[in-house]
Amino acid sequence: MPANALTESLEISPLIRHNWQVSEVNDLFNLPFNDLIFKAQTLHRQYFDPNEVQISSLLSIKTGSCSEDCGYCPQSARYDTGLPSEALMPLDQVLAAANNAKTQGASRFCMGAAWRQPKDRDIEKVADMIAGVKALGLETCVTLGMLTDSQTQRLKQSGLDYYNHNLDTSEQYYSEIITTRTYQDRLDTLARVRDAGINVCCGGIVGMGESHDDRAKLLAQLANLPKHPESVPINMLVQVEGTPLMGTEPLDAFTFVRTIAVARVMMPASRVRLSAGRKAMSDEMQALCFLAGANSIFYGEKLLTTENPMTNEDWSLFNKLGLHPGGSSNL
Predict the structure, then answer these.
(1) In sequence order, what are the residues at sequence separation of 6 or more whose Cβ sits closer than 8 angstroms to the Cβ of residue 155?
(2) Catalytic one among 73, 154, 186, 194?
(3) What is the mean pLDDT of residues 62-91?
(4) Is 201 a catalytic residue?
(5) Is 258 a catalytic residue?
(6) Could you tell me which residues come within 8 angstroms of residue 324 by beta carbon, excluding any fewer than 6 positions away?
(7) Is 66 a catalytic residue?
(8) Residues 108, 181, 201, 215: which is the catalytic one?
(9) Helix count (H) and strand count (E) of the chain?
(10) Do the strands 52-62 and 108-113 form a parallel or antiparallel pair, or are they unpaired?
(11) Strand 139-143 vs strand 306-307: parallel, antiparallel, or unpaired?
(12) In this structure, what are the phi and psi dihedrals at residue 108, rounded to the nearest 5 degrees?
């Protein structure tokens, strides 16, 4: 459908689709900005309180020395970024961080470990962390890399609510960013998690030098999964000295906002999370992202190893916009 036809017909369908064509996604991206925002905001209001934002907190429970070669990541052992390696955190430190996150308003606590694939003994330790965080009354999420069937079942048994495993970019551009794991590896992990009955958190990173078409293909891949991810993090590349993507041409701010809006239109019942890169975004840009349908953020001064806005800055912005924390949908 051409962009002008979409412009003339902005009726909103409540149906969840899994048959998006890349040409349709590009038509959405090419809509006049106001029309795209209107379409996204209208859909957003059908599924969510438009002034509610779900708050997650993210902790690196094992940092650095990763064998993968993800071109954006300072935790890869292949790059000299000055990041010190840290072993898996003790349980008591993780629970203290989770309790602090809850005190500051987070409803979900996410734990990330720099592994290609964890060992079974690691899974047992993470399972104890999940159970402990759940006991604090928080939703739990982990990102640990690839999993076996038995590891996935163990995480489910421990009470895990969400598993994060991003696709990062389109299948066609993927090999430009990562060579140590295939795109199909990522899809297989997502299927394994979904089959185990664990909610999926899956999105991507934009601003890595990908094309307009790559962004459309990424969102089509996400929306055409058998079930939409419950959480869809949209990350802006945070450039880190020493990584191959350092020096990449920054993505235009309006292109990023459009990406949020298109994700909202395509996956209307999912939480669209404004994730990495917020430190470099103005209040005005973040406000446009919330208007475009973002309704979740990572909260706290760090996202694994990169900087994030201070918590007082987030509360100040929330107050300016009349936003409030929450986690329920209208469905």
Answers:
(1) 123, 126, 127, 130, 142, 147, 163, 196, 198
(2) 73
(3) 71
(4) yes
(5) no
(6) 51, 52, 53, 318
(7) yes
(8) 201
(9) 12, 12
(10) parallel
(11) unpaired
(12) -135, 135
* 70 is known as an active-site residue: yes
Q: Is the dihedral angle over the CA atoms 292, 295, 297, 299 positive or is it negative?
A: positive
CA distances (Å), 192 to each of 174, 221, 271, 290, in order?
A: 21, 17, 21, 32
Q: Which residue has the tokens 């209040």?
A: 283
Q: What distance in Å separates the CA atoms of residue 162 and residue 290, rounded to the nearest whole number?
A: 23
Name the helix (H) or strand (E) containing 221: helix 212-223
Query: Tell me, what amino acid is at 326?
Result: G
Tokens for 52?
């509610």
H or E element at residue 318: helix 311-321
The helix/strand/coil state of 317 is: helix
Question: pTM here?
Answer: 0.86
The pLDDT-based confidence of 5 (bands split at 50, 70, 90) is: very low
CA distance 267 to 285: 21
Is the pLDDT reported for residue 10 higher than 70? no
- What is the per-residue burial (b if ≥16 Cβ within 10 Å, else e) of 33-53? eebbbbbbbbbbeebbebebb
What string of DSSP letters covers 152-182? HHHHHHTT--EEE---BS-TTTHHHH-SSS-
Which residue type is seen at 211?
S
Question: Taking a C-beta distance cutoff of 8 angstroms, is the pair 200, 156 a contact?
Answer: no
Which tokens go with 308? 């994030």
Look up 273 and say whether it is catalytic.
yes
Q: Is the pLDDT of residue 1 over 50?
A: no
- pLDDT band at 65; cut points 50, 70, 90: low
Q: Answer whether 238's CB lies under 8 Å from 269's CB.
A: no
* The one catalytic residue among 215, 264, 271, 273: 273
| Tokens linked to 251 | 């993505």
Cα separation of the two ends of the chain: 29
- Given pLDDT bands bounded at 50, 70 and 90, which one contains residue 8? very low
